[in-house]
Design a protein that fits this description.
With 720 residues, this protein is α/β, with parallel strands linked by helices. Helices cover 40% and strands 18% of the residues. Strand 23, helix 18 and strand 24 (613-617) form a beta-alpha-beta unit. The model has no long low-confidence stretch (mean pLDDT 87). Bound molecules: adenosine-5'-diphosphate and magnesium ion.
């Protein structure tokens, strides 16, 4: 029988002929200890020597591979720190000039090198052919037509041909490699067997072979991740006990808190809101705990959906909690929820089903618990919370600390979840589960949408609802990019004009690295300059992260009530702040922000009916990566589109950072480039796990997952 890939983990690379003690150390440096590590140390690229040209065959403007030796390297340093490395590549037919900008290490790399493959487009320059910033590989004296190039081989003192040699010996001695996937998966997703894929990526004969090999191996990586996520989800659904909430009017149609609330809102729900609310209702009425992610663009009306789900818990005799990322947001939620539920009452009912209805009719009570809450007030809130005298608790991280005990938490909403880690969001639920044996329903909301392939990976253990529709009557936010001069000429006068028109404005200050102190200093400067300069005579307010929460809230409240015309702020206003009368936002040094952040900041305006404007201020060069981001934001106000663009430009690193488990396994696959494979892997994982999260019929897959997450966690997931 063929060997499993993972059984090769037990064999050290030292058994290979070419690998002595010194080489073993070098390999260890790139993370290769076992034969398994070695055969999954994939080439970072392949040089296709079938397209190879001799130097006299090079045609300007056409991409080619040329192989030769380096005869000359020189480095020039220009003023301003720029470095230019010139080199000459020679073969039997002639010479080719190579130019590298700002790659000073090229001198050392290329000095006297033989068997150098360069890949790029040559152009004619002063009568000679020249390649600018070509891809360079030291291929060694290889004979194959497709040459694998391994990562970081120079840094550790490893040549790519050494690795190729070790891999060849390892593959030879390993013999046939077992495929853990059932044939139906291979045929459904057009995948080649694992054995062929491993050999194909290391020793391909054609580029097509590389392509299909890569597809299979990347699929395997994504499938492992999805299997973990899907198994976790199915296990939770089958083993945990939740609450069957009364979700009327979606079930019966009696007057309930939920129906009263929906009746009194001064507008009609969007179709998307209605759909999402019914998805939530169906989750909440079921005894399987809800575990749902709500993705919605800025301003799509997530808060209303959240409040509806909290009321479903309250009308069922439970409490609800709303976790917000900042005190400013928690206070804003408190104000708006109190305003909307001001004269709501909760009714006493018989305690037949062990439910937790209040003993007497009383007004519905909403409270907030933040870092700003005084000790005395906090004590009171905690007591009333335990006694069931509080129905909805809003709070920041302060909700997560020990000592916050509910009488019966029925629903937990996590707003703008990117500020909270996976552990934090499960903390309250776990605590509830220990206290009462039942798990509250969970609704997680993202501030800014992320693409489906990413959501499926980062939040793959959650169900997903999408609010892909803005309420009617919104005027699109007109976004322009101005440089600093244009801002002085036209930007500030537009602000003054709008204030005269009784509208309000935000000015977002430059982001200075990660230091809150420097951000504050810059905000102070901007504030001072504007109040004596272009905006003198207007009522300016200032909020920044170094103010205490009380100061912040007072200023926010002043702005909300129209006592402040222009709010100068750092990114503390980034998420959620809702002042519909504000119609213009000026973002200074916008190049310092990412796409998601700019979109989120822009979402502070366009919340009312007034035509709104966003001015991105930046003097960056138009071919810089920052300019790419600014153009993207100026061109589209669709958060879902921008999220795709952002992921393409930036890669998935940061997103994935929020969920470590299993992601280290992604050596070949990328959730950006391989979106279709992510969907395929999800699809396959759902079919494989089906209803059996222990995956009894797939012992080899379980073995691989165990190797990935460790014995303990695997035992927990697949058996415990
Ligand atoms: P976000 O999804 O960014 O959290 P909010 O929930 O803050 O958005 O809603 C943005 C604004 O839109 C709020 O002022 C809210 O009252 C309003 N709103 C929500 N739903 C609707 C609707 N169906 N029709 C009109 N306005 C709505
Ligand atoms: Mg919101």
């Amino acid at each position: 029988m063929a060997r499993t890939l993972h059984s090769l983990s037990a064999i050290e690379v030292g058994v290979l002929k070419g690998v002595g003690a010194k080489m073993a150390v070098a390999l260890e440096k790139v993370g290769v200890r076992s034969i398994f590590d070695l055969v999954t140390y994939y080439p970072r690229r392949h040089v296709d020597r079938t397209n190879e040209a001799t130097i006299d065959e090079v045609v300007p403007g056409v991409e080619t591979v040329v192989l030769g030796k380096i005869t000359r390297v020189t480095t020039r340093r220009l003023r301003g720190g720029r470095v230019i490395v010139n080199a000459t590549l020679a073969d039997d037919t002639g010479y080719l000039d190579l130019v590298f900008f700002n790659q000073p290490y090229r001198e050392r790399q290329l000095q006297g090198a033989n068997d150098v493959a360069v890949f790029g487009k040559a152009e004619e320059y002063r009568g000679r052919f020249q390649m600018t910033n070509p891809i360079v590989d030291l291929v060694g004296a290889t004979t194959g037509k497709i040459v694998p190039i391994y990562p970081q081989s120079q840094m550790a003192g490893l040549l790519t041909r050494d690795i190729a040699k070790f891999v060849a010996e390892a593959l030879d001695r390993a013999g046939e490699i077992f495929d853990p996937l059932p044939p139906w998966v291979l045929s459904q997703f057009s995948l080649i067997p694992r054995d062929r894929a491993i050999k194909g990526i290391h020793q391909p004969e054609t580029m097509l072979e590389v392509k299909v090999a890569r597809k299979r191996l990347a699929f395997d990586e994504l499938l492992r991740l999805q299997l973990l996520l899907v198994a976790e989800k199915v296990k939770r659904e089958q083993t945990s006990k939740g609450i069957s909430h009364d979700v009327s009017p979606f079930q019966i149609g009696n007057a309930t808190l939920t129906s009263d609330f929906l009746d009194q809102i001064p507008f009609t729900l969007t179709t998307a809101q209605r759909k999402v609310i019914s998805e939530i209702a169906s989750d909440m009425s079921s005894p399987i705990p809800m575990h749902r992610l709500l993705q919605g663009d800025v301003g799509s009306g997530k808060t209303l959906v959240a409040l509806t789900s909290m009321l479903m818990a309250v009308q069922s005799g439970y409490q609800a909690a709303l976790l917000a990322p900042t005190t400013v947001l928690a206070e804003q939620h408190l104000l708006s929820i109190k305003a909307q539920l001001g004269n709501f009452r909760v009714e006493a009912k018989n305690d037949q089903d062990g439910m937790l209805f209040p003993i007497e009719n009383r007004p519905l009570r909403v409270e907030a618990l933040t870092g700003q809450t005084t000790a005395a007030r906090r004590k009171l809130i905690l007591k009333d919370l335990r006694d069931g005298a509080i129905d909805i608790l809003i709070g920041t991280h302060a909700l997560l600390v020990e000592g916050v005990e509910f009488q019966g938490l029925g629903a937990l909403v996590v707003d703008e979840q990117h500020r909270f880690g996976v552990e934090q969001r499960s903390l309250l639920r776990e605590r509830e589960k220990i206290n009462s044996g039942v798990e509250p329903d969970l609704l997680v909301m993202t501030a800014t949408p992320i693409p489906r392939s990413a959501a499926m990976t980062v939040f793959g253990d959650l169900d997903v609802s999408i609010l892909d529709e803005l309420p009617p009557g919104r005027t699109p936010i007109d976004t322009v990019w101005l440089n600093h001069e244009e801002l002085e000429e036209a930007g500030w006068s537009e602000v003054t004009g709008r204030i005269r028109n009784l509208e309000q404005a935000y000015v977002v200050c430059p982001l200075v690295e990660e230091s809150e102190k420097l951000n504050t200093a810059s905000a102070n400067l901007v504030y001072e300059r504007l109040s004596v300069g272009p905006l003198s005579g207007l009522r300016l307010g200032l909020v920044h992260g170094q103010m205490n929460d009380k100061q912040k809230n007072e200023t926010m409240e002043g702005f909300r009530r129209g006592l402040i015309d222009v709010l100068v702020a750092t990114t503390v206003i980034e998420v959620g702040v809702d002042v519909p009368n504000a119609s213009i936002i000026i973002i200074l040094d916008a190049d310092r922000f990412g796409i998601a952040q700019l979109h989120q900041l822009r979402g502070r305006v366009g919340r009312g009916t007034k035509p709104s404007r966003c001015i991105l201020v930046s003097s960056v060069e138009s071919d810089s990566p920052a300019a790419e981001r600014l153009r993207a934001v100026a061109e589209s106000t669709d958060g879902f589109k921008l999220a795709e663009r952002d992921l393409d430009l930036r890669g998935a690193g940061e997103l994935m950072g929020t969920r470590q488990k299993g992601t280290t396994d992604l050596k070949l696959a990328s959730i950006t480039r391989d979106k279709q494979l992510v969907f395929a892997a999800r699809n396959a994982a759902v079919k494989i796990v089906d209803r059996d999260y222990a995956m009894g019929s797939f012992p080899y897959l379980v073995n691989e997952l165990t190797a990935l997450i460790g014995e303990e966690e695997a035992a927990n997931l697949f058996r415990g």
